[in-house]
Amino acid sequence: MVQHVFRIHGLPVDMVSDRGPQFLSQFWKAFCTLIGSSASLSSGFHPQTNGQSERANQDLETTLRCLVSTNPTTWSQQLVWVEYARNTLPCSATGLSPFECSFGYQPPLFSEQELSVPSAKMFVRRGQSTLRRARIALLKSNSRYCRQADRCWITAPRYRIGQRG
């Protein structure tokens, strides 16, 4: 956590975690107390408790499934590009990517510069292709989620000042 999360994003106010033994330990409870963070546990066998993480995992899984359908053994090599695509894709609510919200700028993608080293050229081309396909899959996935949400959408009732019941 310190190496991969805190050093980049700072100390959290609250950490929601599953009921894994590492999150139930005395060490973890004491650690959270010492850093001034509360530790919340999700309900057992109820992943919806941590809906934000579950939704992010669902997006990653859907996108990976699209990318590796022809060669499932490559999922671990594709994951980094799917993560990069997700983190650089602007969100409709803010118009900013998660990366831009966290760091204040949109990271560069790929240069159009020609490379003379064939292995580097091939690596970059594969990365570009994967990133392009991942972004397309994420956009399709988001579109599907929006259509699904729109089907369940209802107009909020209008309330008047002083209205009861």
Structure, explained:
- The chain has 165 residues and is mainly α.
- It folds into two domains: 2-41, no CATH class; 51-152, no CATH class.
- The chain has helices at 2-9, 21-24, 26-35, 51-67, 75-88, 98-103, 118-152; strands spanning 14-17, 38-41.
- It has a two-stranded parallel ribbon.
Provide a compact summary of the structure.
This protein has 165 residues and is mainly alpha-helical. The chain has seven helices and two strands; from the N terminus they run αβααβαααα. The chain folds into two domains: 2-41, no CATH class; 51-152, no CATH class.
Record the SSE blueprint:
Layout: H1 2-9, E1 14-17, H2 21-24, H3 26-35, E2 38-41, H4 51-67, H5 75-88, H6 98-103, H7 118-152
Parallel strand pairs: 1-2
Helix pairs in contact: 4-5, 4-7, 5-7
* Class computed from helices, strands and strand pairing: mainly alpha
**Oligomeric status:** single chain
Shape: extended
Mean pLDDT: 84
| Largest sheet strand order | 1-2
- Give unreliable regions as ranges: none
- Measured between the Cα atoms of the first and last residue, the distance is 48 Å
Overall tally of structural domains: 2
Total beta strands: 2
Q: What is the radius of gyration?
A: 21 Å
Major β-sheet profile: 2 strands, parallel
Please, how many helices? 7
Helix content: 55-70%
Q: What is the element string, with H for helices and E for strands?
A: HEHHEHHHH
Estimated share of beta-strand residues? under 5%
